[in-house]
Each structure stands twice: as structure tokens, then as C-alpha cells.
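Pinned message: reference record for histidine kinase
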Amino acid sequence: MSYLIKDMEGNYLKTLPVTVEKALYRKQTEDALKTYQNHLEELVKERTAELETEILERKRIEGEVRTLNAELERRVEERTIELRIANQELLQSLETLRKAQEQLIQSEKMAALGGLVAGIAHEINTPVGVSITAASHLEQQTKEINTHYHNNTMRRSELEHYLDVAEQASRILLINLQLAADQIQIFKQVAVDQTSSERRFFNLKNYLSDVLLSLYPKLRNTRHTITINCPDTLSLDSYPGAFSQIVRNLVLNSLVHGFEHKEQGEITLDITLQAESLQLRYTDNGRGIGKEEIPKIFEPFYTTKRGHGGSGLGLNIVYNLVTQQLQGTIVCESQPGAGTTFLIQVPLSIS
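Predicted structure (C-alpha cells):
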């Protein structure tokens, strides 16, 4: 079956043998394609709308993130400034504390020198007093013999007596002035050691005995006793000033804290050699230290006598001298009512 087909102007074109079935199939196909195309367009519109919504949401989230980041950066900057200011204030506080500590340490050194001066006055008072008495007696005898000489009444026995008195007075003057000079030299060396870090060779027992003389003003009105058990020939190449300050501060700690309500206290320093180290065992029979206090006693400014003359630096100075300058160790053993022991161990060879 054939169909005549006209063009747009109404002219008949060549006839094509087309079946009705094919025409219908083509029509259905075109309709299906148009329907599918419309469906695709709807899907594209829906997906485009969804993407636009997602893009807007992402932009909103990105905006919030930027806002949060800016807020976080602002807070970090503020906190950084606060920390910088706090750090500067802390450094200033530490510097102030360091200067205060240095001033307190210097004050304690001056107090030690004050005690040393009092010790010097006590020790040289006797030989100087004897020397003055001898010189006064010699002066009186010289005046008397001079009078007899000028009056031509001097007898041989009087001259011989005067010569004996002069010889004895000269001997007394020489011995006692030499003793005073030796004492002054000893105290001078102790004073230098207390304020310097000079290393030198010294006899430990003799030196500690000299150091204890400087504590005489603290001990003269008490019945406390101090015993030093140390080999007579033990000499060290070390820092005598460190030993001076260690012993002095330990003794003062016992006097202020250990013997507060004790009339007759006993302090013992036992010094022994062990292999390549020196052990100093300091013991008192005072009131002792509580278990909870022992971990704190070496801390700077820790004291149970705040407002009563305690600076809280004495044992801290001892700890630093032992562990740093002498490169040793110090341990405290104590119980309330059972006294206190400080065990100090330092190497004989210090780098």
C-alpha cells in the first residue's frame, strides 16, 4: 500500500511504500522520546535545584567556618597577649624574688660577720687585757726606777728587780700579743671564707673549731655543748667558706628550732672518710622535725618561725652549698622528740 505525500507547497512527492504499522511505531517512538526528554529535563531541573541548594548551604557553612576561625584567631590572639603579659609579670616576680633572696643571703652573711666580730672581741679580750696589765706594771716600775736613777738613790737590788720585771713583762707582752695576732688572723680568714668562694688547702678540724668561735655570742648564755669528732690530720683541698656556712647554719637551726625550750642541748659533728668521699654527720638532741615537714625544710623561705627572726633561707643555703659547690648530697633524718640528724656526703675530689 502506497501513500501520496505533499510538500509544504502542496506538490506531490514521490510515493513511499510505508506500512501503517511502521508509521504508528515511528509515532510511538517519537512520543516516547519526547516523554523521556521531558522527564530528563525535569530530572535536570530537580538536580540543578538540589545542587543550587547544596551550594548555598556550603556557602553558608563556609561563612560560619570563616566567622568561627576569625573568632578563634581573635581569642587566640587575646590569650596570647594575656599569656605574654602574665609571663612578663612572672619574670618580674621571679627577678624580685631572686633579688630579695640575694639580699637576705647577704644579710645573713653580714649577721654571720657580726657574730664573728663579737667572737673576735671575746677571744682577744683576755690576751689584750693581760698585755695591758703587764704594760701598766712595767710602766709603773720604769717610773720608779727612773726616779731613783735621777735622785742617785738607785740600789743594785732595785735595778736587778726592775730588769726581772721588764723581762717578765716583755715575755708576757710578746706571748699575749702574738696570741691576739694569731686569733685575729684566724678570724680574718674565717671572715674572708664566709663572704667568698675561694678554694684552698686547710685542716678541717682546726678550721671548724675556729668557725665555732664566731658563734660564741649565741652560745655564751646557754648550757649547750658542741663536740667535733674529726681526725686531727684531715686536710682538704676544697672550699672552706662552704663548710663554714654549712656548720654555722646547722648550729643556728638547732639553737632556734631544736633547742627552743631546752636548757642543755648537745650537738655532735662526726666526720669520717669513706673511700673517695667525706661524711659529715651532724646530730642534735633537740625537739626533732615532723614527718610532714622534712620534705619542705630545704625549700627557700620555708620557716616555722616567720615573724620571729626566721628567714627560711638557712637550710636552703646549706642544701645549695652541699649539692652545688661541694657536689655532694644531704639527707635529713628526724622524729619529733628524738632529735635531728643531717647526713652530708661530699667527694674528696671536686671538679
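Pinned by admin. Summary line: Strands lie at 200-203, 225-229, 235-238, 266-274, 277-284, 329-334, 340-347.
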